[in-house]
Amino acid sequence: MKKLTAICLAMVLLCLLPHASAAVVNGDVRIALETLVERCGEIKEEYLFYQESDRAVFEEAEEQLAAALLDEALTDQAAMTVLQTAKEQLSGISVYSVYGLDMPIGYLLDEKAALFRYKYEAAYAGIVARPEDFDSYEEVFYHYQNGAMDWVLVHITDSAPVPWEGCAILGNRLLYAQSGDRPFAFGYGAYDVQAERFTPLTTAYFSGSFAELTQTVELLKIGACRGDMNGDGVLTITDVTELQRCLAEMRGYPSNDRVECADFFHGEYVTYLSDLNRNGIHDAGDVTQLQRILAEIEIE
Fold first, then answer.
1. pLDDT class for 6, splitting at 50, 70, 90?
2. N- to C-terminal Cα distance for the chain?
3. Which fold does the domain 226-299 belong to in CATH?
4. 156: left (phi over 0), alpha (psi -120 to 50) or beta
5. Domain extents for the chain?
6. Measured distance CA(56)–CA(51) in Å, rounded
7. Inter-residue long-range contacts of 290-294, CB under 8 Å, 24+ positions, other chains counted
8. Least confidently predicted of 15-24, 42-51, 97-106, 190-199
9. pTM, full prediction
10. Distances from the Cα of 117 to the Cα of 19, 90, 220, angstroms
């Protein structure tokens, strides 16, 4: 049971993204690295790779995790970066067993995490009238502060249609209300571990009471990325170039650029994902704003 809990913790931390802590890596994160390295070793013993290139990618990720363990000055932020990089490297690889069973590596890792990824589901079931009406409940991010978990980001959906249409701008992300986004307007909520209370993501975001929630929304890529002109999910100088080309009519805007939704939280109507200065039209001010956003990212 102790080993299972450790492996669960490893996969939970794979879902986490780097945060700002500069303290030397805490015990929980180091356990995550150790158990993930152990699990990688088990996968190599129990399964076969379809291609040698897949094995090479797998072993590279394994080596990076093992090297991180030897770094005595490893920080929380650096450890989280290593974990996230490993997750991304391994996500597209499948292996097979001697019985011919095809298994994505992500599943082999996730199967050990189920106990932890539903840690507070009972608390949620206790505050809704009919918990059986909800199709899915998943804890997608665990935030730690001073070595202790202080809040959890959860994603909950059901099959009922949304009674309203709208969106919300959170930092540089645009969230849409979709069918199944209930009880939280956009499907996400934050659970305060100490207060034992769930809060809709938008309320939690604007309250400022959940440390590093802004960075979490950005890093988990929740919603659509405003200003992402080439569709790679992140903002780079390439997006500035592409936006300038669109303004000069050298190319068309991306097909998903026009959104047309009401942002009730800011009291405005959102027309375009590329309308970064939020004046309702395409103009040079969008380029200037995108350059400012990129400058802030570089500073961070």
1. very low
2. 40
3. Type 1 dockerin domain (1.10.1330)
4. beta
5. 2-115, 118-219, 226-299
6. 9
7. 290/227, 290/235, 290/239, 290/240, 290/243, 291/240, 293/172, 293/227, 293/235, 294/235, 294/236, 294/237, 294/240
8. 15-24
9. 0.62
10. 20, 19, 16
